[in-house]
Amino acid sequence: MAERIADRTTDYSAPALDKALDILELLAGEARGLTQTEIAESVGRNVSQIYRVLATLERRGYVTRDDRSGRYVLSMALFDLAHRHPPLRGLVQLAAGPMRELADAIRQSCNLSVDDAGVVRIISQAESPADFGYHVRVGARFPVESTATGAVLASQVAADAGALTPAEAGQLAAGYLTRTDRLQAGITDVVAAVTDRTGATVAALTVPYIGTSYSAVGLDDVVAAARATAAAISARLGGGIR
Predict the structure, then answer these.
(1) Nearest to 192 by CA among 146, 155, 162
(2) Which domains are seen in the chain, by residue range?
(3) Is 118 within 8 Å of 107 (Cβ atoms)?
(4) Which pTM was predicted?
């Protein structure tokens, strides 16, 4: 009797769940998103077979659809879901110590961000211990296409779009980017990639550097410290160090 039950359990399948997981895994590797037709072709289904699954994923907030391009991209729902589970809160927790040490050493604030469906989303910050500093609210969102942080998070997209100068492209190939902030005057963004064990960029560590007579540490030293801190966080995550 037990053997017959085991056999039925082994044969059980959930086609709709398989489709949903295929779509989520596919979109996880597509920073620019995919159209419904492209998704269907990539997962080996026709459009009618994935239509309801996509609609459900969108309704539940796991994917979002751009009204102009019709492309679907992953939202931050999976990220939020993962971080409700204590063992998977690792990114913010593991980064907290190194970020605090960085802020204390350079006397500037720093923040950690991820790509939230094509938008830069701040997930953690360490305040400057100095009397001045640039504060970014945790949860704030910024454009990917016009920020140095966005360029690091979507490095391949930025390179393909030709949105970088040769010098910036060289920096990005080395896992960091330094650029005058296009949204805030007087700020130089120092951004370093945080990578996972495969070498993929999973987050960006940003120092919104304020260069004044009160700045205790020069820009070059801040760049070196930010890169070292990003490498330390990557090592904690099991990632490669660039």
Answers:
(1) 155
(2) 2-75 (1.10.10.10), 85-236 (3.30.450.40)
(3) no
(4) 0.66
